[in-house]
Amino acid sequence: MTGNITLIARTAPGSREVTATSRAVTEADTAELTRLFLEAYGSKISGTAEDAERMIRGAFQGDFGPFLSRESQLIEDENGTPVAAAVVLERRKDRTLPDVPYLFELFTASSHRRRGYAEQLVRQVMASLHESGYEEVCVRIPEDNAAALALYLTLDFNRWSPEQDEF
Hints:
Layout: E1 4-10, E2 22-24, H1 30-46, H2 49-61, E3 73-76, E4 82-89, E5 102-108, H3 117-131, E6 136-142, H4 146-154, E7 158-159
Antiparallel strand pairs: 1-6, 1-7, 2-3, 3-4, 4-5
Helix pairs in contact: 1-2
């Protein structure tokens, strides 16, 4: 099993054309986000449906840190079914992370991958955070997740370590 790495980036105003419409995530989306999370990750990573729902509800209820609804975004298909989502916390309740907004979850339905939704959601999150006055955003990913690492490096995220905050 590998470890995780923390990445951090400066927020920035939106600079790219939006290719898919998104909207803010709300607690009313819990059931659909649970379904989407399970489809995106499968039970090996997400556990049972109850585990996934508990995690989604916990994010809304502040179990992991204060939830940011406006900055959290959801993309739906032509039938109104969620196909990609980004869940953002004002900060993660974890002293090993920087005290900045945290991209808690980013997931896309397996049937809708390779359409640029993840990149678009991260860009929208960064723009929305920037508009709300936040200067940085961080994320933690498994160090062996090459696709996620490539996405975040493309979006100007850099590795972060606690020593960086000591200066």
